[in-house]
Each structure stands twice: as C-alpha cells, then as structure tokens.
Give the backbone structure.
Amino acid sequence: MKESELRKMSFATICVHGSGGPDPYTRALNVPIYQSSTFAFRSAREGAEIFAGEREGYVYTRLGNPTLVAFEREMAFLEGGEAALATASGMAATTTVILTLMRSGENLVASDTLYGGTHELFRHTLSKMGIEVRDVDATKPEEVEAAFDANTRILFIETPSNPTLKIIDIAKMAEIAHRHGAKLVVDNTFATPYYQRPLQFGADIVVHSATKYIGGHGDTIGGVIVGPKEIIEKARRETLRDLGGCLSPFNAWLLLRGLKTLPVRMERHSWNAMRIAQYLSFHPKVSKVYYPGLRIHPQHELAVKQMTGFGGMIAFELKGGRRAGEILMDSVKLMTLAVSLGDVDTLIEHPASMTHSTYTREELEKVGITEGLVRLSVGIEDVNDLINDLSQALKKVPA
Ligand SMILES: *Cc1c(COP(=O)(O)O)cnc(C)c1O
C-alpha cells in the first residue's frame, strides 16, 4: 500500500503497519536496527552539503538514524503532529523541550502534580540554571492565569497526573498559555495518543516517557517529543546535538515493536483498571479510589471530554494509612512491588516514599499524596487473578 493511502487508515492499523510502510532502503517489513554510529559520505562534496543542510542524508546517530526516524515519523503521525524527535528517556525529552524554548531569567508555570523526576528537574536543575518554576494547581484556571507574567515561556502539565490522576483541561490551558504568548507542553505518558491527543485540544508540544506504555514491556528506556516542525528541528539541531540525549537504534526498534500492540494493550489495561477500581471502591478497608473512569472521580466529565479511554493507572488510599499500605505491598504475590508503569505486568508502589519522595512533606500534603496512598499500574494479566491477589493481600491488612 502507498504511504498516502496508509496514512488514511485508522490508529490501530497505522500502529501495526507503521506510518511509512516497509523500510525504504531494504523493503524489510520491520524497520531494521541500524546499529551504526556513523554514515559514509559518497564524496567530500556530498558530506559538506549534508553538513550545510543543503542536502538530506545521515551523518551521525546523535543527529539522526533511520531506525529513529521510523519511530519519530510514527509518533508524529499518531499524535497528529508535524514532526517528532526521539530522545534517550522521558527526562531527556522534557529537558530538551525546555532548553530549546527557554533561557535563564525566564520562567515556567507548572502543574503542582507531576512525575517526581520532572518535579525534581524543575526545582533543582532548572533553578540552578536561572529558570524559575512556578507551581500551580492546574485544575484552577484562575490560579494558572495569575502565575503568568511577561517572562513566562512555557505552561507544563501532565494529565492524568502522576500519581493522583487529576485531570487538567487541555483546551483551557492552551487558551491561557497562548493569551500570554507562551507554549503549552503536555506530558502524555499516562494516556498515550491512543486515548488522548493533546495537540487536537490546542497544546503546542507533547512529551512522552516512551519507557512506559509505548514500549509497554518494561524492557527499555526512551522518550519522544512531538510538535511543530520548526521547534522539533531546532531541538534536534541545537539542543539534542549539544546535550547529547539521543535514543539508541536498538531502543528505537523496541519502541516501534511496542507501538504495534499499543491499542490492544491499552484496551486491556483500561478494562482491567476499571474492574479493579470498581472492586476497590466497594472494599471496606479502602477509603478513597482515584480513577478517571469512575463516575465519582471529581473530573470524570472532563476526562470523558478529552480522553477516549481512561488508561491503566489507579491510586487508592487505605483506611489504615501508611502501615496498611506497607502490609498490602508486602502481601501481594502476583503484583510486583516496583516503580515505573505501563508494563504488561501489574506494578504496585508507594508514591510518598518512592516515586514522589523528592516532594517535601508540605508539597505532598498540598497535592494530596498521603502516607496511605498506594499506586497501581494495572497490567494485562487476567483481571480475576489480579483481584484475587488484591483480595488475599487486603485480608492481611488490619481493618
Ligand atoms: C516515567 C515518567 C517520566 C520520565 O521518563 P523516563 O523515561 O523515566 O526518563 C516522565 N513523565 C511521566 C509521567 C513518567 O511516568
């Protein structure tokens, strides 16, 4: 099938077939791992022209590589963006975007509930570089608006947010950012483009930890940035070239392989998570369940508006607090006590002492990450086995 025809197909078909069809050089159905650091020029003149940007061609894998390009094209297509840039990790994606768009003396407005590593980057490394970060409760547009001034360049959000599954209104945030001449950057790791496409709601740039659902198997670290061609090319030719956080061809290949099954995995993650969220919300030892698919979730309506499914992440609180959570995590047999998320295996962890231990006590309290909060990344196992595991572990938790 021609590329132009393929591009009219639906999301799941593109995931299986890739956005560009077979490898353009060899016709290999799966894009090969171009495990080469450098690329030979045919002549001195050709080399000089490629360097000068007058001719297309590969030079060196930090600047581009055919396996990475296949992954980038597919991600751009799936997110509905003009271009994409693969990075070594989700953190490399976020730092690359920020350092492409900002300089010292400027400021960034950020949602107060973010992946722990992003929060740490904002608080420590960016402030060391003279970039100020202003935390806001992004569920309150007036608070977001009030944080802006003439030096604000980026509004950074994560929705659903890690770990409390807050939903933030992407269209509203885009409107505020644009009114102040700033860019809206959305970390779309939790939802993936299968369930949420932030660019459609006015976001300028999407970043991902491809380590999570995109790879999907817990076997690789990677990241990606999707956005306008002009910004992506600047990020590639200036920031990533200088900082060096490029993806390896082997990891790009694993991510391409992960993308083939993204829709089927997301549907199973979501289906399992909904069943488990319902089970937990009726359990006498559980005081609170955070899952955007539940009608009791305070922003369920908004989730329905901007997402087409609710994903595999759940957080919940036990009546017995921290001690009860520890007993639960030590008692599960099938679930694995581990950080990370989006794997085919179910993972359970304690945000306050693990993924979000970089938050201060006051920050944890302010954003609702209590000592008794447990986070579940629901895998694709049989849901009855998962519920039975939780059930036997909850029996050991004191009432
Ligand atoms: C894991 C994660 C990151 C960081 O990605 P790495 O690939 O670990 O560098 C960023 N944002 C979210 C929401 C994450 O879950």
User: Anything to note?
Assistant: Residues 3-260 form a domain with the Aspartate Aminotransferase; domain 2 fold (CATH 3.40.640.10). Residues 89-91, 115, 117-118, 158, 162, 187, 189-190, 209, 211-212, 221, 223, 341 surround pyridoxal-5'-phosphate (CB under 6 Å). The chain has two domains: 3-260, 263-394. The chain has a mean pLDDT of 95.
